[in-house]
Specification:
alpha/beta, FAD/NAD(P)-binding domain, binds flavin-adenine dinucleotide, Rossmann fold, 31 strands, 8-stranded mixed β-sheet, 3 domains
């Protein structure tokens, strides 16, 4: 069970930073940096191990002030090869407020720049995993806000070293329970190490029972002894349901990505950051010409009062997409062109009683911090929007709108080192042959060969994988571009009210989007009219509906039944059905065989109406899967996106 998260604000007492919740301190008055280095980096022999690795994963119980992370990152910069990748994962139930961290970091001038970089990307107080990246993606930090006992059970990864740095067993016994330490062992690679300042008997017994060897060694200064050890044998081996298994990837580092929309380019970007050689194949003469080719789209999260899986996924994806935008976006680019992201927030209007009830529930749920959503009355709404508004609403200050084509181009330029783009290259069929994927054109000629294949070609993936039974459907959508009026020009935020309306750009507002399963290629004037009528009902007189002859654009979204994308490996449907024909018997998961999806093949499709928000995180999930790195979200979310989920649900219900 997850719970709402609130930041805490620890205080200094005689030079020690005291926890407001536990009878313990984060660090004492002595040299905190030297103590951390001694207890964690040196005790795990990290500087030495960093020098000869391609990738390395460190995990920590209790992120606290982030000092251990900052020092590990510093050591990584000093010792690791330039192309190596560091994963750092930390679980923290009571994250420290950023303004408190700012004061704490002032104590450590040698870490000032890194501390500021961390603060710039520091996650909101929302439960679950938050992935942020530093040093051009060389360093991935996964912060898991929540209780270790609950969160660890839902994480995956194989850590090379653990810092067991929670408060002492006496003040925080849950952190050192056998269950927690067993999970630590499950998440450790064979031979992986740990260190901790505590030599308490309960700690020694717990690590030993979980399969670690241990020995005492000298602690820092007058701290007496500390404990170090390594994993000898894994006591608990499995975490995920066998039918959602992501098999260990084999093969080399060539990856083919089919599809040059936001999903394809996001995947290529995440893979090239990990030194894969990516060939991206796009049938059109340019990138981003299909669903990702609209002139504008909203970047804002879907949030639900119960903070369901869909809500958690969207919040995580939104934060990840925003970090990427903030990293790559320039208000004015080097050639003097204005920026492609407009950080104007989104005002979600409550236009009827149902909306008002829903918004009240969302605010009262306690999940979402005021930095994310803020309730506003009609007067405040008018101020935020810059135009008269008769409705209350919710303001999502971190939202905005993006010009997707420009974003895709910037992403492809940022990925350019390892990326080969092949435009006008329609993949007609794919074949697994001699342990690699062959991508073929119409006449059967070979277009490209790769060790791994990612299909990011929206609904067309169904055609390339006829045996996979993909639950995906193309839904037509239309946007309208309405000439701005004297009044509408003052609109200064995205407005959401079922439809969305963007602030004017180049003399017109973009509004969207219609939703139908027709296959009409040309603009449908009736739908344009309906969108205008809806705006008129909410914002009377803003546009002259009779005069407006909106331009527009038509595109197809690839949608799924549960509105979550299909991300990850996929099975041949017949093989999956026969493997799990007895799933409806409801035996314990570990009694079923492990899935064997199509080799080295992944999907990043089905982004529906929110792909601009979700595609980046999904590209990261796939890249981590192929690279065998720590996933950016917990297993519940990875499973919720699994392409075989609809098939598995059918088998469970014996349909
Ligand atoms: C009208 C409308 C409004 C929207 N508004 C928003 C919004 O405000 N906010 C938001 O977040 N999302 C919005 N979306 C959704 C968002 O645009 C999509 O979810 C997202 O663009 C999907 O990206 P994609 O890369 O998966 O698909 P696409 O952009 O469709 O890219 C797929 C690519 O694959 C290529 N391809 C297909 N088959 C092959 C093949 N065999 N070989 C080679 N290439 C191939 C295609 O040419 C295409 O370029 C909107 C969508 C529509 C239609």
């Amino acid at each position: 069970m997850i719970e709402p998260i609130t930041y805490i604000r620890p205080q200094f007492d005689s030079g020690c930073l005291q926890s407001p919740l536990y009878a313990d301190h984060y660090f004492g008055a002595a040299d905190a940096l030297a103590e951390s280095r001694h207890h964690y980096l040196d005790a795990n022999r990290l500087p030495e191990r960093f020098t000869r690795c391609r990738q390395f994963a460190v995990a920590e119980l209790g992120f606290g002030t982030g000092l251990n992370f900052l020092l590990t990152w510093q050591a990584w910069r000093q010792h690791a090869p330039a192309t190596a990748h560091l994963d750092y994962l930390a679980v923290e139930k009571h994250p420290i407020a950023p303004e408190s961290l700012q004061q704490i970091f002032a104590l450590w001038p040698e870490l000032a720049a890194q501390g500021q970089a961390l603060l710039d990307l520091y996650p909101l107080a929302l439960p679950g995993c938050h992935r942020v990246r530093f040093d051009d993606g060389r360093v991935s930090l996964t912060l898991v806000w929540g209780d270790a006992a609950e969160q660890l059970a839902n994480l995956d990864g194989q850590m090379d070293a653990w810092y067991l740095d929670g408060f002492s067993p006496r003040s925080n016994p849950q952190m050192w329970s056998e269950t927690v330490v067993q999970q630590v062992a499950r998440l450790t690679c064979p031979g992986g190490t740990f260190s901790t300042f505590s030599v308490a008997g309960a700690v020694r017994r717990a690590v030993e029972k979980a399969g670690f060897s241990w020995q005492k060694q000298l602690g820092f200064g007058d701290k007496g002894q500390m404990l170090v050890g390594s994993l000898q044998q894994q006591a608990v081996t499995t975490g995920s349901a066998p039918w959602f298994n992501w098999p260990a990837t084999k093969g080399d580092r060539r990856v083919a990505v089919v599809g040059g929309g936001i999903a394809g380019i996001a995947t290529a970007y995440a893979l090239t950051a990990r030194q894969f050689e990516v060939t991206l194949l796009e049938q059109s003469t340019q990138l981003a010409t299909a669903a990702s080719g609209n002139p504008g789209g909203v970047i804002s999260p879907f949030l639900a009062a119960d903070h369901s899986l869909a809500s958690r996924f969207s919040a995580a994806a939104f934060a990840f997409a925003k970090d990427n935008i903030n990293l790559l976006h320039q208000t004015v680019d080097d050639d003097g062109r204005p920026g492609w992201f407009h950080p104007c927030g989104e005002l979600r209007l409550a236009v009827n009683d149902r909306d008002r009830r829903r918004q009240r529930r969302l605010v009262a749920s306690g999940w979402f911090p005021p930095e994310l959503i803020e309730a506003v009355d009609a007067e405040q709404a008018s101020k935020v929007a810059g135009i008269g508004i008769d409705h209350s609403g919710l303001f999502v200050a971190k939202a905005g709108w993006v010009e997707p084509v420009a974003w895709v181009q910037v992403l492809s330029a940022a990925a350019s080192d390892g990326l080969t783009q092949r435009l006008s290259s329609r993949v007609k069929s794919i074949e697994w042959s001699n342990s690699c994927w062959q991508l073929l054109v119409g006449d059967g000629d070979l277009l490209c060969e790769a060790d791994h294949l990612v299909l990011a070609n929206a609904s067309d993936a169904r055609r390339l994988l006829p045996g996979a039974d993909l639950s995906i459907r193309a839904m037509r959508g239309q946007i309208a571009q309405v000439p701005a009026t004297a009044q509408s020009r003052s609109l200064s935020t995205v407005l959401g009210f079922g439809q969305y309306l963007l602030p004017a750009q180049g003399g017109a507002h973009l509004m969207g989007a219609s939703y139908s399963d027709s296959d009409q290629q040309s603009l449908d004037a009736t739908q344009q009219g309906e969108m205008l009528t809806e705006v008129e009902a909410v914002l009377p007189g803003l546009f002259d509906a009779a005069q407006s002859r909106p331009a527009g654009r038509v595109a197809w979204r690839a949608t799924t039944l549960d509105r979550l994308p299909l991300v990850g490996p996929v099975s041949a449907a017949a093989a999956c059905r026969s493997r799990y024909s007895e799933l409806s018997l409801g035996r314990r998961p570990e009694t079923y065989p492990v899935a064997e999806p199509l080799p080295n093949l992944y999907l990043n499709i089905g982004h529906g109406s929110r792909g601009l928000v979700t595609a980046m995180l999904c590209g990261e999930i796939i890249a981590c899967g192929i690279a065998r790195q720590v996933p950016p979200v917990d297993r519940l979310l990875v499973d919720a996106l699994h392409p075989d989920r609809f098939l598995i649900r059918q088998l469970r219900r014996q349909l």
